[in-house]
Amino acid sequence: MLGLLNACATNQIVVKPDPRYAPVDLKAVGFQPVANGSIFQQGRSVRLFEDSKAFRIGDLLSITLSESTNASKSAATNTTKDSDIGMSATAILGVTPTHNGDPFLTNSLNATRDFTGSGDSAQSNSLTGEITVTVADILPNGTLVVRGEKIIGLNQGSEYIRLSGLVRPQDVSANNVVQSRKLANARIYYGGGGAIADSNTKGWLSRLFDSPIFPF
């Protein structure tokens, strides 16, 4: 019955906001604008001779995503070892033991070992786009701590981008944009959910067969 009800449910955004990437609640931190003038507001003033950049907690900052990684690795190993041991007939008390005229203490041992192994690995990733985040904190040296997420509801599912990191004020351009490669301690997550994501995911039994604990 629960499965039928779930199948009949309307499609909604299946990705829920993550509170770890939520903007700072300025009311919770005690920020209250002070009405001390009709034009100039102390603490929220706009500097006349500077660009409009994010420099306060709660300000918005645009991040241009331009991530591209390529990695490849190959390895090959070959080992060979041959061993030959021969033992001639041994005389006991001056007499060589024989059986039907053939010395039976004559022995030989041959051993051959050969191993060949090779492996190749290649991986390539690319992520482009743009996301606007908020300034969550400011470190004593002036570095901005930023975080934010974007959730896009699409047909039969949704997608999300979550980002956090550290930004130097000097790396912010005049139009209040910074490149993702300028982020320090960057955490960028891209994923999705819904019917398309579910159909593109292995079942639990298939994942069990592919897991390291499977002995075969």
Structural features:
single chain; 216 residues; mainly beta; 6-stranded mixed sheet; two-stranded antiparallel ribbon; elongated
The parts where pLDDT drops under 50 for at least 5 residues are none
- Helical content stands at under 10%
**Mean pLDDT reading:** 80
- C-alpha termini separation: 38 Å
> What count of helical segments does DSSP give?
3
* Biggest sheet record: 6 strands, mixed
Q: Secondary-structure element order, as H and E? A: HEEEEEEEEHH
> Which class of secondary structure composition applies to the elements?
mainly beta
Largest sheet, order of strands side by side?
7-1-4-5-6-8
Strand content: over 45%
Oligomer: single chain
Radius of gyration: 35 Å
Total number of beta strands: 8
Q: Any idea what the shape is?
A: elongated
Detailed description of the structure:
- The chain has 216 residues and is mainly beta.
- The protein has a domain at 56-67 and 125-200.
- Helices cover 9% and strands 46% of the residues.
- The chain is elongated.
Secondary-structure topology with pairs:
Elements: H1 2-8, E1 60-87, E2 98-99, E3 102-103, E4 107-138, E5 144-154, E6 157-167, E7 177-179, E8 184-194, H2 195-199, H3 204-210
In short:
With 216 residues, the chain is mainly beta. The chain has three helices and eight strands; from the N terminus they run αββββββββαα.
